[in-house]
Structures are given as structure tokens and as C-alpha cells.
């Protein structure tokens, strides 16, 4: 049975080129396998339909002879589905920035997944590498927040040219190779026929500008490796191994680029008395047999210093008692968890004759 490509894209047979492009964009967004609710089979069908309807010559042949006019199928011509999916995910190598039917894959899929060229062939700045560092904080600092100083060596903007790569006082001129666009296009043969591949201009490294006089300090790179000292605020209630992102404090890639991010991974030191579960704190307290039977008030350590804990009469060993609101503050919220104290009743291994006699009398009294 012949395939109805118009139905696949949801357009009428007399649809304009712009309507077909718009329909393809909508369907590609909807069915991309990497998107929640995506459908790989539908995605294949949509792209096969657009290969034909998005090309004026192929569309004319399809209208005349049907889907059988091209026996190569949807992804022939030396490429396969894996090649296409790599391209749609921004991993396409030579397929990166490919353009077919007037739509750049970077334009369509970059909107969903954060890569590619963007509209009008404009690409973002070069981005530096992200960095991860680890810090250790005390149990209390993790609970109530603190500020830590971090020292690290990384690629930073040159302090002479401030990262521009140009000698102070000199100017830039428009790159003649790309006309200031920062990109060059070349035509290549792909599974869709002749297509345009977009890449950074090798002459200006994608900046669109040429430095007339390079900075002597960095050689025109705009970057120097140096030590950096940063302060990071650790928020109250942070969890163990949580990360804090410091935007644009990662590696600087060089002239015309944007620094990556710095991720600070927080490790919480174990506490000798407290254990944390989510926002609650747990500890143990030992009491005597008489305290368990008769009840008492005891001092126990908490995050807020020593507090009184009421031991009700008849408390059983390993019973948990709660101190409401003395746990860890909620991260980026209001309120606190609770502090739970597990009471352990100490049973003496040896007792005097007098104590033994008193216990026997107590036992007799309880059994009456």
C-alpha cells in the first residue's frame, strides 16, 4: 500500500512549502525519541515524509507516481538511521549543522536538546569546560549553612587583554573569509542529496573578527592558566554529595568564548553522636533502670546545644522520643525536621544483695 506522506505530516496535498516545513518542525518536536513521550517509529515516518515533500523535485515525482518512485526508501544514499539520529542529537560529525529543505537540524533539535546552530545560522559562543571540585563541611555547617573558600588552578581570561586576545589599544577587523558571520558553509552529498554543512570559520575560529595585533601576554589566545580563589555559599539543609553550580566560573575557552561552570560537590563529615536522615536527626541516650521505671528529665546534645528530654515513666529500652523542630532546616524552605532520641536502658550485669532483694520485692509487688 502506497504511503501517504501528506497524511503523515498532517497537511493537505496543496500545502505550501512553508506549511510543510512548519508541519515537519511540529512533528519532529513531538515524536523525537529523546523527548518525553517520543516515538522513534513515528519520528522515522515523519522524516521520510519530509525528505520527499520538502524537496520540490521529489514531491513532483511523488505526486505523479506515488511513494514507489524512489526504491531507496527513507534513509538510503550511503547513510542509515543511526547516522540521522546522531545528527539530530548534535553528534553528527560531518552531519552537524546539516541543512535540508531549508531547515537546519540544529535549529529544530537544538531547541529541544540545547545544541546546534539556532535560527538564521547564528551559533552561540564557544563554551569552556565545566569543572568539578569537592569540599568537606561539618555536620553543623551542612545543617545551618556556611561559606567556604575554594582555591584552584584553571584557564582564566588573560588579565592584560581581559580575554579578548588583542593587545590593549589595538582593534579588530571583520574576517574576510566568513564576512563576520563566524561560520562557513560547504555543500556535501548526504542521504538527503546535496546539503549544506555549517562549521566555524577556521580563519577567525568562529568569532567573525580578526585581531590586528595579538596580545603579547597570551599570544592572542585570550586565556592564561592561573590560580583562582572563590567563595561559595553552602545553603542550610544541603544534603551529602549535593552539588552547587557557580555559573561561568569554569574553564575559559579563549578569545570570544564563554567560561564553563564550576560544580562544587559537598561532602558532609560524619558526626560522633548524630545521624541524619533527610531533615531529621537521630541520636541515642542511655538511662538507668530506675529512670525508665520512674521517669526523669535528662540533658541531651542537639544541633541547638543541650536540651532537656523528658523520660516518661515506664519507658521501654530502644523506645524513640521526639524533640519537635530540632532537626535540620529545610533546604530553600521554611521549617525544620525533628530530633529523635533512642533511649537505651542500662541493665546492670551485677547487683548487690541489697539491690537484688529490693528487686525481688518489687517483682512480688508487681505480680500481685
From TrEMBL:
<dbReference type="GO" id="GO:0006260">
    <property type="term" value="P:DNA replication"/>
</dbReference>
<feature type="binding site">
    <location>
        <position position="161"/>
    </location>
    <ligand>
        <name>Zn(2+) 1</name>
    </ligand>
</feature>
<dbReference type="GO" id="GO:0042026">
    <property type="term" value="P:protein refolding"/>
</dbReference>
<dbReference type="InterPro" id="IPR036869">
    <property type="entry name" value="J_dom_sf"/>
</dbReference>
<keyword id="KW-0963">Cytoplasm</keyword>
<feature type="binding site">
    <location>
        <position position="215"/>
    </location>
    <ligand>
        <name>Zn(2+) 1</name>
    </ligand>
</feature>
<dbReference type="InterPro" id="IPR018253">
    <property type="entry name" value="DnaJ_domain_CS"/>
</dbReference>
<keyword id="KW-0143">Chaperone</keyword>
<keyword id="KW-0863">Zinc-finger</keyword>
<feature type="binding site">
    <location>
        <position position="201"/>
    </location>
    <ligand>
        <name>Zn(2+) 2</name>
    </ligand>
</feature>
<dbReference type="Pfam" id="PF01556">
    <property type="entry name" value="DnaJ_C"/>
</dbReference>
<dbReference type="GO" id="GO:0008270">
    <property type="term" value="F:zinc ion binding"/>
</dbReference>
<keyword id="KW-0479">Metal-binding</keyword>
<protein>
    <recommendedName>
        <fullName>Chaperone protein DnaJ</fullName>
    </recommendedName>
</protein>
<dbReference type="GO" id="GO:0031072">
    <property type="term" value="F:heat shock protein binding"/>
</dbReference>
<feature type="repeat" description="CXXCXGXG motif">
    <location>
        <begin position="175"/>
        <end position="182"/>
    </location>
</feature>
<dbReference type="InterPro" id="IPR008971">
    <property type="entry name" value="HSP40/DnaJ_pept-bd"/>
</dbReference>
<feature type="domain" description="J">
    <location>
        <begin position="4"/>
        <end position="66"/>
    </location>
</feature>
<dbReference type="GO" id="GO:0005737">
    <property type="term" value="C:cytoplasm"/>
</dbReference>
<dbReference type="InterPro" id="IPR002939">
    <property type="entry name" value="DnaJ_C"/>
</dbReference>
<feature type="binding site">
    <location>
        <position position="158"/>
    </location>
    <ligand>
        <name>Zn(2+) 1</name>
    </ligand>
</feature>
<dbReference type="GO" id="GO:0009408">
    <property type="term" value="P:response to heat"/>
</dbReference>
<dbReference type="InterPro" id="IPR001305">
    <property type="entry name" value="HSP_DnaJ_Cys-rich_dom"/>
</dbReference>
<feature type="domain" description="CR-type">
    <location>
        <begin position="145"/>
        <end position="227"/>
    </location>
</feature>
<dbReference type="InterPro" id="IPR036410">
    <property type="entry name" value="HSP_DnaJ_Cys-rich_dom_sf"/>
</dbReference>
<feature type="repeat" description="CXXCXGXG motif">
    <location>
        <begin position="215"/>
        <end position="222"/>
    </location>
</feature>
<keyword id="KW-0346">Stress response</keyword>
<dbReference type="Pfam" id="PF00684">
    <property type="entry name" value="DnaJ_CXXCXGXG"/>
</dbReference>
<feature type="binding site">
    <location>
        <position position="218"/>
    </location>
    <ligand>
        <name>Zn(2+) 1</name>
    </ligand>
</feature>
<comment type="subunit">
    <text>Homodimer.</text>
</comment>
<feature type="zinc finger region" description="CR-type">
    <location>
        <begin position="145"/>
        <end position="227"/>
    </location>
</feature>
<feature type="binding site">
    <location>
        <position position="204"/>
    </location>
    <ligand>
        <name>Zn(2+) 2</name>
    </ligand>
</feature>
<dbReference type="GO" id="GO:0005524">
    <property type="term" value="F:ATP binding"/>
</dbReference>
<feature type="repeat" description="CXXCXGXG motif">
    <location>
        <begin position="158"/>
        <end position="165"/>
    </location>
</feature>
<keyword id="KW-0677">Repeat</keyword>
<comment type="similarity">
    <text>Belongs to the DnaJ family.</text>
</comment>
<dbReference type="InterPro" id="IPR001623">
    <property type="entry name" value="DnaJ_domain"/>
</dbReference>
<dbReference type="InterPro" id="IPR012724">
    <property type="entry name" value="DnaJ"/>
</dbReference>
<feature type="binding site">
    <location>
        <position position="175"/>
    </location>
    <ligand>
        <name>Zn(2+) 2</name>
    </ligand>
</feature>
<dbReference type="Pfam" id="PF00226">
    <property type="entry name" value="DnaJ"/>
</dbReference>
<keyword id="KW-0862">Zinc</keyword>
<dbReference type="GO" id="GO:0051082">
    <property type="term" value="F:unfolded protein binding"/>
</dbReference>
Amino acid at each position: 500500500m502506497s504511503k501517504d506522506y501528506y497524511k503523515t505530516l498532517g497537511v493537505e496535498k496543496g500545502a505550501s512549502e512553508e506549511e510543510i516545513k512548519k508541519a515537519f518542525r511540529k512533528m519532529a518536536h513531538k515524536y523525537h525519541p529523546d523527548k518525553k513521550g517520543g516515538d522513534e517509529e513515528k519520528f522515522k515516518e515523519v522524516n521520510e515524509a519530509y525528505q520527499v515533500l520538502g524537496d520540490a523535485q521529489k514531491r513532483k515525482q511523488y505526486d505523479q507516481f506515488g511513494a514507489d518512485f524512489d526504491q531507496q526508501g527513507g534513509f538510503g544514499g550511503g547513510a542509515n538511521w543511526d547516522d540521522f539520529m546522531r545528527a539530530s542529537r548534535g553528534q553528527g560529525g560531518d552531519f552537524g549543522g546539516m541543512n535540508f529543505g531549508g531547515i537546519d537540524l540544529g535549529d529544530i533539535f537544538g531547541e529541544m536538546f540545547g545544541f546546534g546552530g539556532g535560527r538564521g545560522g547564528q551559533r552561540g559562543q564557544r563554551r569552556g569546560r565545566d569543572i568539578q571540585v569537592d569540599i568537606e563541611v561539618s555536620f553543623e555547617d551542612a545543617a545551618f549553612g556556611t561559606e567556604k573558600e575554594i582555591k584552584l588552578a584553571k584557564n582564566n581570561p588573560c588579565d592584560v587583554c581581559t580575554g579578548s586576545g588583542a593587545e590593549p589599544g589595538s582593534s579588530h577587523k571583520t574576517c574576510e573569509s566568513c564576512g563576520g558571520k563566524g561560520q562557513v558553509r560547504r555543500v556535501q552529498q548526504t542521504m538527503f542529496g546535496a546539503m549544506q554543512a555549517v562549521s566555524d570559520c577556521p580563519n577567525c575560529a568562529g568569532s567573525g573578527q580578526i585581531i590586528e595585533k595579538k596580545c603579547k601576554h597570551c599570544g592572542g589566545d585570550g586565556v592564561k592558566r592561573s590560580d583562582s580563589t572563590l567563595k561559595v555559599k553552602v545553603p542550610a539543609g544541603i544534603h551529602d554529595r549535593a552539588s552547587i553550580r557557580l555559573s561561568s566560573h569554569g574553564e575559559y575557552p579563549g578569545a570570544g568564548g564563554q567560561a564553563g561552570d564550576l560544580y562544587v560537590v559537598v561532602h558532609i563529615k560524619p558526626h560522633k553522636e548524630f545521624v541524619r536522615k533527610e531533615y531529621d536527626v537521630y541520636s541515642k541516650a542511655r538511662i538507668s533502670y530506675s529512670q525508665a521505671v520512674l521517669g526523669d528529665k535528662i540533658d541531651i546534645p542537639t544541633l541547638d546545644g543541650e536540651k532537656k528530654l523528658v523520660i516518661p515513666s515506664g519507658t521501654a529500652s530502644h523506645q524513640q522520643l521526639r524533640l519537635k523542630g530540632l532537626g535540620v532546616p529545610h533546604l530553600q524552605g521554611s521549617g525544620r525536621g525533628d530530633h529523635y532520641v533512642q533511649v537505651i536502658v542500662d541493665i546492670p550485669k551485677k547487683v548487690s544483695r541489697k539491690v537484688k532483694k529490693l528487686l525481688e520485692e518489687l517483682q512480688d509487688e508487681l505480680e500481685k
